[in-house]
Amino acid sequence: MRVAEEHHIVMLPFMAQGHLIPFLALANQITQRFPFKITIATTPLNVRYLRTAASNHSPQIHFSELPLNGVDHALPPETENTEALPLNLIVNLFHASASLHAPFRALIRDITATDGAPPLCIISDVFMGWANEVARSSATVNVAFTTGGAYGTAAYMSMWQNLPHRSAAADGSFSLPGFPNSLPFHVSQLHRFLRDADGSDPWSRFFQPQIAHSLTSFGWLCATAAEMEPLGLDVFSNYTKRPIWCIGPLLPQGLLDRKPSRVIRKHAGREPGISPERCLAWLDSHPEYSVVYVSFGSQNTVSQSQMMALASGLEDSGRPFIWAIRPPAGFNSRAEFKPEWLPDGFEERTQGLVVRSWAPQLEILCHRSTGAFVSHCGWNSVVESLSQGVPIIGWPLAAEQGYNAKMLVGEMGVCVEMTRGVESQISREDVKRVIEVVMDGGSKAVEMRKKAVEVGELIRAALTEEGRRKGSSLKALDDFVEALLSLK
């Protein structure tokens, strides 16, 4: 496919790390294969973050700042993303994102004037559905990009659009429009903000119109591989009734290499809780598949009582572990971690590394010693783990994580759930029992690891190009560009 260089794509991510980084990865993926100019438009603080994260990015990738005054939306001063934002204020940031409409429209107008033509397309976050209005009035098209998987995204959209849990049975189960009735969902898989939603609440008032707008997009890009999620892709396609290009997972090349390098990527803009080198040296001292890795992502944490139970269960298991830990729910996530949040003497007695702030997750998951990942089941963490054949112990906390966990358990067989949410009761005995299911070398543990390795091979195949043979995700990216060019 011959492509002219003058084409320009404008990207509009939502202001959260789990969205910004996949958008940057998508921009890199496109510019590696096509001579397009790409502009990523977001707020000043997030532009600075992306510039740091993309210190060696392609010269074809540019950044444009969109002004946002968080104080106007009842947010703390200089708040421009979800990082360290209390849970009760995140809905304010969602509503604040709609105020980017006018400056984004002005940006598209300026780009059109400078280039002498409108952008080839806008690629907007599913939460920025209003970008469709900008695209239509600017003689271009909008393509929605979900940074999650097909199954989780379809479930998330259907949940918010239909609020089916309001008609749940006495046992808490309910059918989800768009999904087979043979796959019931449960109210325990929903975050409390969704459980309490009635259509007039602030969350519904944001999500329902933005999802409806996104469903009018020209098509969808999805950060998954078609072979990973056959059911999810079928449901997602039927729900959106638009073309879907599965162009993921969007992983660093280091995760796809057969012999990955020791340090996979720069961890931009964050104070490390431990250096990758020290972490790798610690892992080197442990046998294959012996270490349990625990992390709930950059945005999530568990309650104080759950944290105590998790710590005690880890200790009872006798397994070595790495735990990327944050203050429990209800405390400032950026505050110094207090010893009283863990059992007395826990760190001294156990065979683990308790890492404040972030841990070098990619390097940990790539290491032969890592045997299981206790995860919130955010999509980025899911695909990073499965790309390395590491089975998952699920503890979904928010967003579409409960639906991801449902798929990982029921469709893929690569996960067991430990519990759900921050309100559940869990004991040290529960923690130890679930860890042993995955780590004891029994038939279920062996089968889960086998299936995780198989999914990892599917991911690798989808993103591999050998001669004229392209993996499905690379071919999907070509097909996406061809579809855009056919509109010209």
UniProtKB/TrEMBL annotation:
Query: PROSITE patterns of this UniProt entry?
Result: UDPGT (PS00375)
Q: Which residues form the Glycosyltransferase N-terminal domain?
A: 8-136
CDD domains in the cross-refs: GT1_Gtf-like
Stated EC number for the protein is 2.4.1.-
Enzyme class, top EC level, equals: transferase
Q: Name one Pfam family in it.
A: Glyco_transf_N
The alphabetical list of record keywords is: Glycosyltransferase, Transferase
> MF terms per GO, please?
glycosyltransferase activity
Q: What InterPro entries does the record point to?
A: Glyco_transf_N, UDP_glucos_trans, UDP_glycos_trans_CS
The UniProt entry's sequence similarity note says: Belongs to the UDP-glycosyltransferase family.
PANTHER family named in the record: GLYCOSYLTRANSFERASE, UDP-GLYCOSYLTRANSFERASE 92A1-LIKE
Q: What is this protein called?
A: Glycosyltransferase
Q: Which organism is it from?
A: Salvia divinorum
Organism lineage:
Eukaryota, Viridiplantae, Streptophyta, Embryophyta, Tracheophyta
